Every structure is written in C-alpha cells, then in structure tokens.
Amino acid sequence: MFSYIIRRILYAVPILFGVMAITFLLFFVMYSPQRMALQKLGPKAKQREIDNWIHDHGYDKPKFINTQSGHRFYDSLFVHHITSLAKFDFGRSIRTDEPIGAMIKRGVVPSLLITLPAFIIGFATALTMALYLVLVRDSKLDTLGTIACVITMSISIIVYVIFGQWVFANLLKYFPAFGFNREETAGLFSVARFVALPVLIMAFAGIGSEIRMYRAIFLEEAQNDYIRTAQAKGVPMMRVLFKHVFKNGVISLITLVVSSLPLLIMGNLIIEDFFGIPGLGSLAITAIHTGDLSVVMAEVYISAVLFLAGLLLTDICYAIADPRIRLS
After folding, report:
1. Cα–Cα distance between 176 and 197 in angstroms, integer?
2. Are residues 78 and 128 in the same domain?
3. Which of 163, 239, 284, 287 allows an S-S link to 292, with CB 3.0 to 4.6 Å?
4. What is the pLDDT of residue 182?
5. Exposure of 252 by Cβ count < 10 A (0-12 exposed, 13-18 middle, 19+ buried)?
6. How many whole angstroms from its chain centre is CA 171?
7. How far is CA 290 from the centre of its chain?
8. Using alpha carbons only, how large is the chain's radius of gyration in Å?
9. Nearest partner of 95 among 15, 38, 169, 159, judged by Cα
C-alpha cells in the first residue's frame, strides 16, 4: 500500500501543476498587475505610485522567461508563482496586505464549526432513513419518504436560510441570526447556540438528496441473489439489512462520503454569507466581491490539494473496508 500511496502522490503533481498554471493564466495574464494596482490604490493613483506598488509585490518581473541580462532565466513571475504555491506561501492580500496564510488559518475553525457537525448529523440521519426505506420498500411509507425527499431537494438552500432566520431567530428568538464574534462567543454555550441554526439548516437542506442516493445504493444490494437466498433461509430482515446490505454497500458510500470530507474545510459560501460567519466560504465571497485575486487563487489551490487528498483517502478506505481490494 505504501508504494501505491507514493505513486498516487506523484500522479497528483502534474494535476497540481496544471491548477497552478491555470490560476496563473487567469490572474496574471488575463488580469494584469496594472489592474490589481488600480484596485488597491484607486483610479486616481499616479503612475509612479502604481509602478512602486507593482515593484514592491514583485509583479514587474517577466511573466514566463526572464531574458534580461544579468538575471537568471527562471527569475520570472510564473516560476515565483509555482514555487510559492508549492511551499504554501500565498503571499499577502491585495486589499488588506495581510498574510493570506494567517487569513486562511483564522477562517478554518469557523468553517469547521458549521460544516463538520452538519455533515455528521446529515450523514447519520440520511443513512438511518435510507436503511429504513429499504426495510419498508414498496410500501406507502417508502413512497411518502421518496416524495418528501424530492420536495426537500427541490427547495433552494436560500429558502431554508430565510425561513430559519425569520422563524427561529426573529420570531421565536431561539438563536441569533447574524454576527459571529470571536470575543463574544468565546464560551462553549454561546458558540453552540450560534452555530446550531446554520448547522441544522445545512444538514436539512442536503438530506433529501443524500437519502435518495443511499437508498439507491442499498436497494441495489437488496436485489442481489445472496440477499434473496438469506431471506429464503429465514434470516431475520434486520440482520440481512445490517450484516449484508449495509456491509456490501459501504464501498459505494465511501465514494460519496470520504471524498467530500476534505472539502468541508473550505466551508459553505451561502451559509457563512447569510449568517456572517468568518469562515473560508465567507473569505472567498469577500475576495471575489472586492477583487482580491491573491486570496481567490490561494483558495482555489487549497481546494485542489484537498480534493486530491480526498481521492487518495477514498482508495485507502476501499482497501480497509473490503479485504478483497488490493491497491497496486
């Protein structure tokens, strides 16, 4: 397995290089440093101020190959961009001049406070409901459950957010609607009270699609010959459901679940924006609105790294869940 992991990591290198190259083309070729300087300094900035800002940030170097005498050919903007991302050195924000690494570290915890509990609640609930619908398949309860899943899938998460804030925050006053403040929410109870509503909304908004996917996985397993053989031998249905159907459906669940785990770190843009949570999702929205391309570029690169890590973790979990699978 160790050699397989090393090969997969090496396979990820050209993919990450492609991500770096694409972000460079988008943010340094199509969107010039001159425009970045104007966004930072304002449209009335003098040319000398613009040139000084570009020089201070190292954006005055040649884009790809340095052909200037007395300089090394790799002393270019592209090589600097590649090496900086490879070392996870994201530089400073164009808008605030704050280190991007510190901004990302500060946003990870608020994002995980929302996404991780929502994922656990949503996964446990969807898994339980999917198994129950398989248990009562072809019944009225199964039909009603499927219809309810389709209805919840058809409603936008924005509707859930607006309804939740209006009812539970504004009318009933159970939860605060906005304003995640680190100093004021230092206590565990205060943090839990604030994140409870966005966590429940996020979990409920995606539960319909998850139940349908898990139900389809378990139904496919329940229709196999060995399940019918076990039922014909008089094995109790609950035992068949958990020992055979669930166990053999784990591989498909891993594909859906494990590969999405690393992306939880990046937060949820809509939830964080509506509830004022200073996570990575909110950071990305703010960076896009203000034109802070350096922050956007850093989050794109981190998303690519986490996605590749999720794929590797998925393959490893395959081998752990099913001994018949050999990673080679």
Report:
1. 8
2. no
3. 287
4. 54
5. middle
6. 32
7. 22
8. 25
9. 38
pLDDT band at 186 (very low <50, low <70, confident <90, very high): low
121: exposed, middle or buried (C-beta count within 10 Å: 0-12, 13-18, 19+)? middle
Helices 140-154/207-222 angle, 10° precision:
140
**113 — pLDDT class (breaks 50, 70, 90):** confident
Distance CA 249, CA 199 (A): 27
Query: To 10 degrees, what angle do helices 293-321 and 100-135 make?
Result: 40
Determine phi and psi for 63, rounding to 5 degrees: -70, -50
Please tell me the predicted confidence (pLDDT) of residue 147. 92
327 domain-assigned: no
In the chain the beta strands, taken as DSSP E runs, fall at none
90: which 2 tokens? 């994201």
The structure tokens listed for 62 are 């040649």
Per-residue pLDDT, averaged over 14-36, amounts to 79
The pLDDT, as a whole number, for residue 136 is 84
pTM for the model: 0.79
Average pLDDT for 298-319: 82
pLDDT tens track for 84-103: 888 888 888 877 878 888 88
Residue 94 inside a domain? The answer is: no
Tokens at 104, concatenated: 């990302």
Range of the domain at 22: 2-86
Largest CA distance in the chain: 86
111 and 221 both lie in a single domain? yes
